[in-house]
Amino acid sequence: MIIRTIISTKRADNFIIAMCNLIQRLTIDSLHIVGDIYDRGPGAHIIMDTLCNYHNFDIQWGNHDILWMGAASGNDSCIANVIRLSMRYGNLSTLEDGYGINLLPLATFAMDTYADDPCTVFTPKMSFADASYNEKTVRLITQMHKAIAIIQFKLEAAIIDRRPEFGMENRKLLHKIDFEKGVLVYEGKEYLLRDTNFPTINPADPYRLTEEEQELMDKIHSSFMNSEKLKKHMRCLFTYGGMYLLCNSNLLYHASVPMNEDGSFRHVKIRDKEYWGRNLLEKSDQLIRTAYFDEERGEDKAYAMDFIWYMWCGPDAPLFDKNKMATFERYFIADKELHKEKKGHYYTLRNQEDICNKILDEFGASGPHSHIINGHVPVKTIKGEQPIKANGKLFVIDGGFSKAYQPETGIAGYTLVYHSHGLQLVQHEPFQSRQKAIEEGLDIKSISFVLELNSQRMMVKDTDKGKELIMQIQDLKKLLVAYRTGLIKEKI
Fold this sequence. Notes:
Pathway: Carbohydrate biosynthesis; gluconeogenesis. There is one protein chain. The protein is α/β, with parallel strands linked by helices. It folds into four domains: 1-31, no CATH class; 44-239 and 265-339, no CATH class; 343-458, no CATH class; 464-491. It contains 18 helices and 16 strands. The chain has helices at 2-8, 12-27, 44-52, 63-73, 76-88, 93-98, 104-113, 135-162, 211-225, 228-240, 277-293, 299-313, 327-332, 346-349, 353-362, 406-409, 434-440, 464-484; strands at 31-33, 57-60, 177-178, 183-186, 189-192, 241-242, 244-247, 250-253, 268-270, 273-275, 371-374, 388-389, 394-396, 414-419, 422-428, 446-453. It has a five-stranded mixed beta sheet, with helices on one face. Helix 11 crosses helix 12.
């Protein structure tokens, strides 16, 4: 009778959706996201809308999340990077439809500046685009892509000059271009440039923005700073996110804890003081929040604003930890040797159980059932790489849920499930389309692997939440005793 009434009143769709949401909520007590919601395909704003209304979640910030947080904080280098990546993959909807970012000034500037330039090197990767664009629109995106990339290189150089302690002088490459020969002179060797048209670069002062570029960035900056939806989503990331999380003896973080070759924690100097291990991640967390929330506009704010960009691409940044981000080389140099980004020692050392135990001890997560949960570097399953490392002490659950990474990984990512019986890793196959799912039943196919079984089922009292509840019960008992013995009076 109830079902018939639901159908007859045309509420069946709403009922099905409500039941699905209920099942999801009962099935998933807590959702942990190990970074990089943004720049992993179209619709990041839709994901954030869902998360902002989710009953219980947390996120360990990834370097792409930090990039957007930096853009929302007003860092122009981060803003330029965000736009460049959106152009590179043809994902304009998040910027325009999701956050109301006005890209018209960039389009106008690009059409005027690169009117006769084919900009071939900057053709977007349309196989990952958020929509089907006609040839004219693709041409415009290509021009916009080149325009913002050149601006980005100039803006980043200003930070590098301000902060020599970042050690990123090798990322300033515009002054190493021989404009007459059309080559890049790098470490004593000449590399032919794939694109030699630089109408906005003055060889005598290559990092200075033209008046038009500065005016353009002022307009885009204003658009980012006045997006209410972007503010809402960034505050959600700050409220429910952080550099790392300890949960039930598990340590979750996106990328790395920088280390030296000998397995010791790498000391990173931040404003004349050295930080390493847990303190480094906590200091980074604090500076990221300062960049967004500090309204004093003093030196602390200025440093934090530059540091948030460093977290995106800095060699000792816990969210990156590679010797360089080879953006310029990938665009302009054909020699793939210059494209290589050497990973920090952490990525090799994390395969050793003793190193993982050392990291867990550093964060206070030791014990037989403690693990490190990592993301950042997609697991190349197609080449035989395994997500389980260090004898089961570390799991890398970034397997390429993003479509752009699936050709490299061979799968569509992992989900790590933690329940009363133990740990279970779920490997996903690529989702093709809703149409395929409806017509051919080709939904997301998943394969589950049991990683660890508890000898006894874990009860609520054994979890972090359970311990918190036990403490609350003890406090309530003390309160009750105090009331019954007259130590406190009932309020009327």
